[in-house]
Structures are given as structure tokens and as C-alpha cells.
Specification:
The protein has 90 residues and is an all-alpha fold. The protein is built from 4 helices and no strands. It has helices at residues 13-30, 44-47, 50-66, 74-85. The protein starts with 12 loop residues before the first helix and ends in a 5-residue tail after the last helix. The model has no long low-confidence stretch (mean pLDDT 84).
Length: 90
């Protein structure tokens, strides 16, 4: 909703990219000692606008360049945890 209410935070795609990349960088560094996960919620009619989609492009480019990143859907994450812990995930 930060895109929907301009006075809150995100007006442009760059605002979204900067914020998300900062969060990613922090988790990426912490991930050197234990795995971390960053969830990015997207709505196609909000982020998919021409002035905003560039922010998502920048985020994906930044993460890919950093390396050692797994881009996964929710079902893939669930399968991963089930594979590690069985059906009684923590």
C-alpha cells in the first residue's frame, strides 16, 4: 500500500527499489552466517505501471548481481521446508 498513499513512502519505482535493495543488502550480509528470507509482495496493477515497473527491474538486477540468491514461489518455499523438517515444520 505504500504506492497507493503517496505521502507515506513510495511515489516512484526508484523509492521502492531503494527501500527493497537496502533491506536485501542487510539480509544478504546477515545471511553469511544463517539463511535469510525477504518476501516482496507485488500487485500487478500497482507495480505493473510504467513508472513503477522499473523499480522491480532494478531490484531483480541488484539481487542477481549480488549473487547467491534463490528466487522462489511460495509453493517452492513450502516444499523446501517440508523436505527439511517433514510435515511438522517449525
Amino acid at each position: 500500500m505504500r504506492f497507493q498513499i503517496p505521502e507515506v513512502v513510495f511515489v516512484r519505482g526508484k523509492d521502492f527499489a531503494d527501500y527493497t535493495n537496502d533491506a536485501f543488502d542487510c539480509l544478504w550480509e546477515e545471511g553469511a552466517t544463517s539463511p535469510k528470507m525477504l518476501t516482496i509482495g507485488l500487485h500487478l496493477r500497482i507495480v505493473g505501471r510504467p513508472a513503477r515497473i522499473s523499480g522491480l527491474d532494478e531490484i531483480l538486477r541488484h539481487m542477481t548481481q549480488k549473487g547467491q540468491v534463490w528466487f522462489a514461489r511460495r509453493d517452492e518455499i513450502a516444499r523446501h521446508w517440508i523436505g527439511m523438517y517433514g510435515s511438522a515444520a517449525p
